[in-house]
Amino acid sequence: MRTAPPQGPEPLRHPKGPFQAPLSRDEPESDLLIFVLVAMAVALVAFWYASRFIEPAPPRTITMSTGSKTGAYYRYGKLFAKELAREGITVKVVTSNGSTENIQRLMLEGDGDGVEVDAANTPDVADVAFVQGGLETDALRAKVYSLGRLYLEPVWVFTRGTRSYDQLGDLKGKRIAIGAKGSGTRPLALDVLKRSGITEENSTLLSYGSNDAREALIAEAIDAVFVVSGSGGRAVQGFLHDPNLRPLSFSRAAALSRIYPYLTRIEMPRGVIDLVKDIPNRDVELVAPATALLVRRDLHPALVDLLTKAALKIHSEPGLFWDKGAFPRKIDTEYTLSPDAQRYYASGEKFLARYLPFWLATFIERSIVMLIPILTVMLPLIRFAPMAYEWRMRRRILGWYGRMKRLESRAQRQTAGSDVTAYIDELEALEAEVNAHRMPLYYTDQIYQLREHIEMVRRRFQELRAGPAAVDVGAA
Fold first, then answer.
1. Residue 77: phi, psi to the nearest 5?
2. I need a labelling partner for 331 at 20 to 30 A (CA). Which of 48, 69, 202, 212 fits?
3. What is the pLDDT of residue 426?
4. CA-to-CA distance for 123 and 410, rounded, in angstroms?
């Protein structure tokens, strides 16, 4: 009976797979570098995504439109500029003809970051402005936020001589100065005069500013003057202290306050301006709108906080017509109150702003906004990165075991005495690869176990190559 000659070893085929190619000594470091690069890329993507939603840094310069240099708006504007300068913000306080012009500047399109101006250039755009009550429009409401009402501006009507007028209707047929064009006095005067039956058809309505109107009134060029201003203004003080001029007492002040909700009925007691000189020499009833501090809706929230803080400091003191703490009013029936101002009125300064300089607090707040999405992405990545790295290392070790197992399986199909030198050579190449590969210390026990198993398989191959006698001896 013929026996089949011993079969030689099967042709070696290098197993295909991601971990079967010879590995370099630096591969663990390369794996770690890959994970670091992936984490950095994810962090950069998160940073870019967060940057799309973060507020830009607040501008260092804003423009405030006020009024004439002799008026209360300009005086208060200077106080606001002084307060914001403490925090490194420059407020360009610019003059205007009054509320109507201020509204026009708020309505104009701009970059929202303040407008640089010089003495020869009046700014086109205002970031913040004082606006008299009663001048709101739908278009304006859509463009601005209110930071609250600051104080009352009485409506004064001054006449010449000893005659006392007690209602606006008595001025029919007279020459009346109703304020300069661009002022808030003009539209208010036109409205209340029309309600009282006085129009351009039956009276002479003239465009005079308060200073020019006083001179014209003294010179008997006009008969009456409308002025909307606080009692502390230079113009009003000039009218009140002139013995030849008299303020009109609105006998129907209560009715006007009902007809025009933005007007408040107030009373100036006799002698309150000057007890010695008895100014005024009788009780005077007046009506007054409340001045609003309006800002463009694109003004930076941090600047809204600073302006609200300044308003509380400047306008919380008592006045001639209101008690301490009555202003600033935290509600506005004409405009939408700024959400940031509402928060400030309710809670005060933000936590960081109480203890840190403005710019540092703002920087940290912006950084926190950036860090939240980044940490949301990075924390899971940090948690799962070691697991992914361990899976990578274990898969490499299992790859080596897989190669060894395939060698052993092919060798088991050989008969004793077969030439298994090629298998032994490949096993030794596998062992050299394992020895050359630097693995983290955590996997040392698994590497030692792998080396022991390689040695076991090598002995099996050597027994096959030695023949039946060696196998029997080995079995014994």
1. -60, -40
2. 69
3. 84
4. 90
